[in-house]
Each structure stands twice: as structure tokens, then as C-alpha cells.
Amino acid sequence: MSKDKIIQAAIEVFSENGYHRASMDEIAARAQVAKGTLYYNFPGKSQLFKTVVKQGIEDIMQRTEAELNSPLPMKEKIERVIRDHLDLFLESRHFSHIVFNEISNGIEQDVLDELKELKRKYLSFLASIIEEGQCEENLCRAVDANLAAASIVGTLESTCNYYLNHQDAYSRDDLEQFAFTMITQGLFISFE
Amino acid sequence: MSKDKIIQAAIEVFSENGYHRASMDEIAARAQVAKGTLYYNFPGKSQLFKTVVKQGIEDIMQRTEAELNSPLPMKEKIERVIRDHLDLFLESRHFSHIVFNEISNGIEQDVLDELKELKRKYLSFLASIIEEGQCEENLCRAVDANLAAASIVGTLESTCNYYLNHQDAYSRDDLEQFAFTMITQGLFISFE
Amino acid sequence: MSKDKIIQAAIEVFSENGYHRASMDEIAARAQVAKGTLYYNFPGKSQLFKTVVKQGIEDIMQRTEAELNSPLPMKEKIERVIRDHLDLFLESRHFSHIVFNEISNGIEQDVLDELKELKRKYLSFLASIIEEGQCEENLCRAVDANLAAASIVGTLESTCNYYLNHQDAYSRDDLEQFAFTMITQGLFISFE
Amino acid sequence: MSKDKIIQAAIEVFSENGYHRASMDEIAARAQVAKGTLYYNFPGKSQLFKTVVKQGIEDIMQRTEAELNSPLPMKEKIERVIRDHLDLFLESRHFSHIVFNEISNGIEQDVLDELKELKRKYLSFLASIIEEGQCEENLCRAVDANLAAASIVGTLESTCNYYLNHQDAYSRDDLEQFAFTMITQGLFISFE
DNA sequence: TATGAATGAGGGTTCATTCAT
DNA sequence: GATGAATGAACCCTCATTCAT
């Protein structure tokens, strides 16, 4: 079906180029459909973008949720969340970018609002995991869970980015261990 | 002088829109000069962008360096580095974004290389502070200092971003304390 | 169809203005299509130019070739070649100019190379007629046929040009006779 | 003096690029004067162009005239005229182009008229030499002398052009001999 | 359901020219 | 006499969108 081909192509093209630099022409070409077909299936570029982002966020949420339903100790759960995100970020270099950072000037306000809402929902989802760790097991520090979620995503994104530019210096495993340490224990050795 | 007006305008426009969405027309209008004046002073858009980024990075490096020359305990130094970065990031909403995350497709390769070099130099600068904390005072954990620098910047950027979208829920001071805690102690209460 | 309209308009505009002075805007206006349509049909200005030149050269080659297939004495054939070229040059004032003399600085090298190749092919075609006259009938002097071809084209072009600026002083027939005499017998009455 | 430096630079730049493609910036740079100085010395681009063309034409006329005052047989005089022109055309590749063929759309009408007048004067000068050969020595055929002049210039220009693109195949001497033969005797061996 | 030719607003860039110094 | 910063019109080109088929 055309719609699916288009979405797949759109994920690729948006991920590689970012919103503004991605062109409907290239999406159509990559999806092997005519340009008109894009507009037959989606009202416009920004709506297509929204669909892509939505799908991406739902994917990672589902992926992560599946892991969390298994009866694991909290510490391990968070390890997995980090691993899942590294997978996603490394796999589709710019996707996290788009989702979390795309400068949005030039997208219609209503689409923009929906995107913000999606992002909010996603951070809430992460925050709820953290809250679980705060309540249930007294594992996590009593910081604001939403800020913590944002901070984790930021850390993961920027370290992935650094890693991708210096793949000779680190292994994927180094990255994962570093991220886990940094996120859970912070920079300081002790702190009274 | 035109050149300064242009740089100021460029900082604004690039910060608000990102590279690709920023237009030379708007920069000229904001700087209250004719479009041709941009090209009299800079060879083109990408070079103007480079100048802006360079200046931004040099600014924050200088600002931070000044603080670090004072004889403060390491812990306080890092507190100040965080505060300086929050200042910068909050002040110019998307500047950090541009510097650290701008999707670069479509910028000439040579300019791109210079930008990467600038970024690398900046992260090295931050890393050197961390290394100092590792060696001199045995304060910092023995993680890779460059990755740690990247991770700090990522944390600050994404929490700032979150804060700017939820200013009703937090004070600037909340943000600062959160960032310091998260960066230095991490998410977990204890970890033996 | 748009493509044909564009080519016709391009012939006119390039002929009247030369490559650098011709503007895509004017071609679009003359073709009564939107500017974007030019770029839908051709990759850019230089490619459009190439198409125009190619078509022009192929036209004159075909036109001439048709004449030469008829079983005429060589002398008459050359008369016809001259007449055909005068037709072309007088009809589309600057076309020959463009083809044979366009200063090419600023056209992409690959297009330029194709144009040179076209020109070379055309001169070879003329040269082959001359060679026929040298061999078969011992009519033509044993000069280098390619130079001779170039020289004929130059003579025709510059006399046409002169004629067009002094139409009151000569008839088309005067021009034709003059060209034939000059090309075939030269300036001197006798030469021992 | 600035004026002279400018004219020399202008000759170079116009010769290399043609009128429309030549830029005042480059002329100024080549003359090592500021851009404003061009406008201090000349009213504008087209006037500067006119000056250059004028000087070029006067140069070649003087150069040729000097040769013709010596008491040579007519045949030799014409040989020299050809040689002088080849020198000029080969030396300054596009100068003849500019003078004899520059498509002039976009130059102010009054300058254009002056240029045409210059060209006319020059062709008359050549024509007068031919006329001398017709009358005095009964050497030249009784063709229209102005057309003959135009035709000679056209031949020389286009053969020079061909030669410059195929320098491996011919020597300068080949070119000179060819031009002399073609111009004076034409293509045909005999013609009764 | 799908197409692709056509559009036109807007983007980056060039350059002859002006003018205060 | 000479400068060079500043201008703005005009250039080539891109691309999201429309619409007849």
C-alpha cells in the first residue's frame, strides 16, 4: 500500500535531513510513488512529519513498555531503557534529534502543538518509570521526575552524537556503560 | 558598523530558526541593512553561520575561563560552569542547539569541518576542567572526560528546553539545583 | 506541450541576448509558462542552452545533408551549403553567433565540453563535404579541410552581420553572390 | 596614473570574459585600485568598455597603417595585414570577439551607436586597402570592398579560434599560410 | 486510488552603481 | 584624486502544493 511505503520513506528522509531540509520530492522518490500520491495520502508535509514522529514515539514507547512488564529489578529496568534508547538513537542518527529538538519555526501551529503533546506524553512515560523507582524501591533520588526524564534523553542523545563522531575511540559497550554510570551515579565520587 | 549589526541579527535569526530555516532576507531586515551588505561583509550564509557559532563558542569559553581562574574549590567551579551554561542556554534559546545539534546537511563541507573542530575544541575545554577534578582533588569519577563533557552539555540543553516549555512549574533556581544534583550525583540514591 | 514552447522561447531569447544576458525569467515569460516549469523540464540554464544549441546544429546539419544527397555537381552543392547557411544566419540573427562564438566563461565545464564536441562534429561535417570536393572532382584546393570549414563559417557569419547592419546597401542576392565568390575564388584576380 | 591602469586591466578582463561576464570588481582588483576609482574615472561600465574598444581599434589601425606606408607591393601589404591581425587575435583571444561580435543587448543605445561607428570606421579602413589593391595594381577582384573586409575579419577570427582549440594539430605558420591562401585565392582550384 | 505536469513564492547570490569621507 | 562601505534590482534555482486526468 502506498501509505506505508510513504511513511517508511519519510522516516528515512526526515531522519537523514531534518524537517526543513527534507523534500517531498525525495520522499516520493524513495517511496517509489508519484509526488501527487503524497498529497493524496497526507494533507501536507507537516502532517506527514507528525505521522512519522508519532509512529516513532509510539514505537519506542511500546518497545520499552514490553521490557518493563517483565518482572525485573528496577535497576535492570533502567539499564534496559537506556539500552533501548541507545539502539534507537544510534540506528536512526537524527531521529531523536527531530523528535526532541527539531526547531519548529515554519510548521503550522496546530501540528506543532500536537508534536509538543506527543513529546510531553513520552517524557511522562519515562518519568513514570522513574517515579516507580522512587516509590517502590527507594532506588531513585527524589528529584522532579519529568526533568530527570528530559535530562536522561539529553544525555543519551548528546553522548550518542559524540560517539558517532568518534567511533574509533570507543566501543558501543563503552558508551553504554558510561551512560549508565553517568545517569545513575553522576560525576562525583562521593558527596556528603 | 554594519558587520556587528549583522552578527547580532544573525545570532538572533539563526537561534530562532536554525540554519536552514533562517533566511538572509530576515537577517538583513533585522540588522537594518540591505541584503547586499550581508554579502559585502560575509562570503555567504554558511560563512556567516560559522562566524556566529565561533563567536558564541569563544564567548562561553572566555566567560567560563574567567571564573575558573579564581581560586575556588573544584566543586564550586563546576557549579559555576553549570550556572554559566544555563545562563547562556536560557538567554539564547536555541543557540546551544545550533552549536551542538544543528543538522548539517547542506552546509559546505569545509565550513562543516571547521564547525566540528570548534565543537571539539569546546568539549575538550570542558573535559579539561573535569580532568582537573579527577586528578587534583579526586573529586570526579574516572569516566572518559570527553563523553562526560558531552553528557553535561546534553543534560543542560534538554533540561533548559524542558524548563522553557514549563516555566510555570519550576523556578530558575529549581532548574539549577536539579541540574547540579543530576550531573554530580546521578539518579540513584546509593549504589554500592 | 510546455517543453516545446520553452525551447522555442529559449531559441529566441538566447539568440537575441547571448547566453549570459538571457534570463530564465524572460524565457519563461516568452514561453508563457511559470518559471518553475523551466526547471521542471530542464535541470538548469546551461542544460537548456545546450539543448537549444544541439537542436540548432542538428537542424542545419539535416537541412544541408538533405541537399547533398541529391546528385548535383560539387560546385552546386557548395553553393547550396552557402545558401542554407545564409538562410539560417539571417533568419535567426544571433544563432550562429551563439553556436560558434559564445564566450563560455561561466558555463559548467561538462556542458561546455558537450558544446565543443557538437561544434567539432559540425565542422567535421562541413569538412567532409570539402574533402569530397578535393578528392572526387579535384575541385577544391588541397588546404586543411577543417580550417576551411571554420573559415567558411566565419566568412558567412561576419558578412551576414555586416549585411544586416547595411540592408539598404545590398540585396540578399548580392550577399549570396559575394559570399560564393569570396569563398571559392578569394580576393585576388590571379595568382601565379 | 589610475586611468591607464584601469584601461589595461579592463582590456584584460573584457578580453577574457566578454562584456556581460566581466565585472567591475575584477577590473578594479586587477588594476589595483578601489572600485570607486573606476567610477571616478569613467561614468560606468559601458563607457569603460567603449574606451577599451576604441583604444583597441585605434591600436590595430595604427599598427597596420605604419606597415602600409612603407613602399611594398600590394600583395605583401595584404600579407602583413593578415599577419598583424593574427597577432592581435591570437594574443588577446577574445578581443576580436568583443569588437566584432559582442552581443550588445544591455548596453546603452548611445554607447552602442558609438561602438558601431567605430567598427564601421575600422572596416572602412580595411576596405580602403582593398580598394587600393583593386585600383592601383589591378590585384583585387572587383567585389564590394566593405563586404570583403568583413569577410576577411570573419575568416581570421574563426580560423584563429579553431587554431586555439587545436594547437597540437597546426603551427602558427600553417595558420598564416592557410589564411593567406584562403583569403586571396579561395577554395577552388580554378574557375573559368 | 494515483499520477505528474505545472505553479509561484521565496531562497541565496551577484554586481553595477552611489556617496560620504 | 581616490576610496570602500553600502545598496537594491535582478539573477538562477528549489520546493511545497495544486489539479486535470
From TrEMBL, chains A, B, C, D:
<dbReference type="Pfam" id="PF17932">
    <property type="entry name" value="TetR_C_24"/>
</dbReference>
<keyword id="KW-0804">Transcription</keyword>
<dbReference type="InterPro" id="IPR036271">
    <property type="entry name" value="Tet_transcr_reg_TetR-rel_C_sf"/>
</dbReference>
<dbReference type="InterPro" id="IPR009057">
    <property type="entry name" value="Homeodomain-like_sf"/>
</dbReference>
<dbReference type="InterPro" id="IPR041490">
    <property type="entry name" value="KstR2_TetR_C"/>
</dbReference>
<dbReference type="Pfam" id="PF00440">
    <property type="entry name" value="TetR_N"/>
</dbReference>
<feature type="domain" description="HTH tetR-type">
    <location>
        <begin position="1"/>
        <end position="60"/>
    </location>
</feature>
<dbReference type="InterPro" id="IPR001647">
    <property type="entry name" value="HTH_TetR"/>
</dbReference>
<keyword id="KW-0238">DNA-binding</keyword>
<protein>
    <submittedName>
        <fullName>TetR family transcriptional regulator</fullName>
    </submittedName>
</protein>
<feature type="DNA-binding region" description="H-T-H motif">
    <location>
        <begin position="23"/>
        <end position="42"/>
    </location>
</feature>
<dbReference type="GO" id="GO:0003677">
    <property type="term" value="F:DNA binding"/>
</dbReference>
<dbReference type="InterPro" id="IPR050624">
    <property type="entry name" value="HTH-type_Tx_Regulator"/>
</dbReference>
<keyword id="KW-0805">Transcription regulation</keyword>
<dbReference type="GO" id="GO:0045892">
    <property type="term" value="P:negative regulation of DNA-templated transcription"/>
</dbReference>
